[in-house]
Write a structure and sequence with these properties.
This protein is of the alpha/beta class. It is built from 13 helices and 7 strands.
Amino acid sequence: VSARAGARGPVDAARAEGSHGTADAVDARTAAAAADGRGTAGAPRLLTVVGVPAPVDAGGRSPSGDAGYWPAMNPGLVDALDGPVLVENDANLAALAECAHLALSGTDADHLAALLMGERFGAGLVVDGRLLRGADGGAGEMRFLDAVLGDRRGADGVAALARRWALEALEAGETSAALSALPPAELGAKDVFLAARDGDALARAVLERIGDRLARIAMILSSLIAVDTVVVAGAIAEAIDPVLEHAREALPRIGTPPLPQLRASSLGRDVVVRGALELALTRLREDPLALLATDPVQDPQPPTEGNRTS
């Protein structure tokens, strides 16, 4: 995991030189160091932060629920990993990243919802400058959308909605030269977005429906917990502008002022990683001595009867 995360160390240098035997030997030493809670370069690992797509309580544990999905995503990671470990919900980490990013530009981010909108909707919620967690860490879970929207898959995210609604329209007899040419099993959200950009009527109608759903979700969050900013985050944010345009047009039809501001994140697919870094830095600032503490230094001249002072 350290190597995949780009932690530079002797392993990388050995591989760059093409010495497989040396790399294997260093791998063994690196694995031993990691097991002992140290990084690839031998420095102590201060803190590990893990983001998971599941509710997480203050102790880093997820409840048993969602047909076993949550415990599968977080099978006791806080206890399984060495050293100090923080396990956090991925949408919560996205919210922390967005708050920090907006604060750097001088924008108020005390009342914000960060929506991760891939296959599922998930929200990280910040109210009065504090991250909301709730019982078992369940704040921001979007399962209520099934009931509120009258859709048994109401918590489907943008990627899932684009694919599902496009296929449903094709099965109902609507036509799309671009999308009909693709095998149904291979049709994805990217294809729908590209077709809409090229003027395909079916694809544009799908994006309008997604924009309407996003507007409804934003109004629910605005009305329920009074967030004034809803940020769409994650990899999908790079292509979300057409959906946001439809959502902004739909907001006045759906709700009454004050209307939440809709933004596309500029942090890209690394937003959860950035949030993990923010959380780690915050924890370090809160109690630096706890994380920076090292083994006590041995006195080269321990007290003896001859040199003991009063």
